[in-house]
Amino acid sequence: MEERNAKPIKLHKRNKWKTFGIIMLVLIIVGGGVFVYRKPLAVMAFDMFLSGHVEKKLEKSYAPLKGEAPKPVVYQTKPFSTLLLGVDQRENEPARSDTMIYAVVRPKDSKILLISIPRDTYTEIVGKGKKDKINHAYAFGGEKMAKDTVDAFLGSKAEYYTAINFKGLRDVVDALGGIELPITKDIVNKEKDHEKFTILANKPIYDGKDALNYVRYREDSDFNRTKRHQIFLNAMVTRILQLNQVSKIPELMDIAGANFKTDMLPSSIIDLAKQMLTGEKSPQIYSFTIMGEGKRMNNVYYDIADEKDVKYAEQLIESWSNPNTTDSNLLLPQKQEIE
């Protein structure tokens, strides 16, 4: 009898220590920012606890373009391109793509190229049969017309699109605990017909409200506005890598919800994220903005794109999209500063 009573006690202790060990392992994996192997451990934790959950949430955002079949990302073997659309819809206004960025992703090199097109760029709207501001393509025909128009403008077909409504941006930034932005002078939106706001300079961290106003501010130039969008994307990537908090991913997916749409398969997004996370280098973002000259036609302001810039953007895309271009031979964009 004594022997039989002793076994459960030993088993209980063994299970207790086993449970404690598992808890400690999970804590190390999820919060292991100080460990040498934190990236592989983070991916292991993601696979064990979050992968299926996140994929299910991403399914709600999966929205292939009409008439197009699912296109998995062949991320292991070649670079790929996607059109990034930042959609800003306010009360009593049609939705327009405030941000239009042609991105080329090179997963093996952990490098991303962003080609920004100012919203007022004057070009042919594919499917509409007329020329107009490039950001009007989204208002006329949604993601498909926007993508077809950018493809024609740059002479390169983006393989995918990703659209996010700015309404979800504020909550995403707040969920990350804010982001760092290089604001050295107060930004004041004050013109008569514009939303009024002030962003104070030199704050260590900016919350979602300030970040949203930062990308919306438009009282200097279209070029500067476009550069701010690039800076914001860099700041978001930097913040996520600093935090290294895998556990926040489902919360971010919940926030994105209906504000996020893409024709990239959920499983492809997860595999791509893991490959970028486990790369030897932290992701590097390079950007180039197509400049233009302002011109009024029929009392409407447009940007007439600089043909040299368009040609240079085409060369950048060709260099980055070619899987045979080595990392050391990539054409890197010329540096452009906010005016």
Automatic annotation (TrEMBL):
The chain crosses the membrane at residues 20-37. Keywords: Membrane, Transmembrane, Transmembrane helix. The keyword Transmembrane helix applies. InterPro entries: LytR/CpsA/Psr_CW_biosynth, LytR_CpsA_psr. Residues 96-240 form the Cell envelope-related transcriptional attenuator domain. Pfam families: LytR_cpsA_psr (PF03816). Belongs to the LytR/CpsA/Psr (LCP) family. This is LCP family protein required for cell wall assembly. The lineage of its organism: Bacteria, Bacillati, Bacillota, Bacilli, Bacillales.
